[in-house]
Design brief:
186 residues, mainly beta, seven-stranded antiparallel β-sheet, four-stranded antiparallel β-sheet, 2 helices, globular
C-alpha cells in the first residue's frame, strides 16, 4: 500500500474538489449537500498507487467514490483532478473504476474474503469486506453500486463487496459492488 503520510496536506483538498466532482456525475441524484461518512483503503502490492474509497452522504443516501492516487498519468483513466501532496508532489487522482490497480484490489478482496485497510480521517471509519459466492468462475465484471444499497447480492452474483460505517451516530451497512460472470464458465 502507498504509505500514509500523517500530517501531509493535499491541495486542492478533498473538500475542495470531491463534492463538486460528484454532483456533476450522471449517477448522482442528491441535493448537493454531500458530507463525509467514511473512508477505507486497499493495498497496492507494488506500493505505488494509493487506493481509497470515500463514502459521502446526502441525507440518507450514501454514495461511494473510489479513487486512486498516482505519481503520473494513467492512459485511459478517468481523471478527477490533479493535486499537490505536501510530501509526494503532484498526484493524478482518478475515478478508480478505470484503474487496473483498483480492479485487482476488488477481485483480490472477493477471492480471499478479505477486508479493506483502515483509513480513519476525523473519526470517519469504514470497512469493506469481500465474499466469494461461486468459486471457480472465469471472467467477471464488477458492478459498482455508486449509491450504496441496503440489499444483499442478486441471484446472478458470483461475489459481493459489502461495507459498514457510522452515520450520524448509527451503525450502517450496505452493498458496495457485485461481481457477475461475463460468459459461460469454461
Amino acid at each position: 500500500m502507498g504509505k500514509i503520510h500523517t500530517g501531509a496536506t493535499l491541495t486542492p483538498s478533498f473538500r475542495d474538489f470531491l463534492p463538486a466532482w460528484v454532483t456533476r456525475q450522471s449517477w448522482y441524484d442528491g441535493s448537493g449537500s454531500l458530507r463525509p461518512t467514511g473512508f477505507f483503503r486497499f493495498e497496492d502490492p507494488a506500493g505505488e498507487v494509493g487506493v481509497e474509497t470515500h463514502l459521502l452522504h446526502d441525507g440518507e443516501a450514501v454514495y461511494q467514490v473510489p479513487l486512486t492516487y498516482r505519481p503520473g498519468p494513467l492512459e485511459g483513466g478517468a481523471l478527477v483532478t490533479t493535486a499537490e501532496h505536501s510530501v509526494l508532489g503532484t498526484r493524478w487522482i482518478y475515478d478508480a473504476v478505470t484503474d487496473p490497480v483498483w480492479i485487482a484490489a476488488i477481485l483480490h478482496l472477493v477471492a480471499t474474503g478479505g477486508a479493506s485497510e483502515p483509513s480513519s480521517r476525523n473519526g470517519f471509519e469504514a470497512e469493506a469486506r469481500g465474499r466469494l459466492l461461486r468459486p471457480g468462475v472465469d471472467g467477471v465484471v464488477i458492478d459498482l453500486d455508486r449509491r450504496v444499497v441496503p440489499a444483499g447480492p442478486p441471484e446472478d452474483a458470483v461475489g459481493v463487496v459489502t461495507g459498514s460505517w457510522q452515520q450520524d451516530g448509527a451503525a450502517k451497512s450496505g452493498r458496495l459492488a457485485v461481481l457477475r460472470q461475463t460468459g459461460p464458465n469454461t
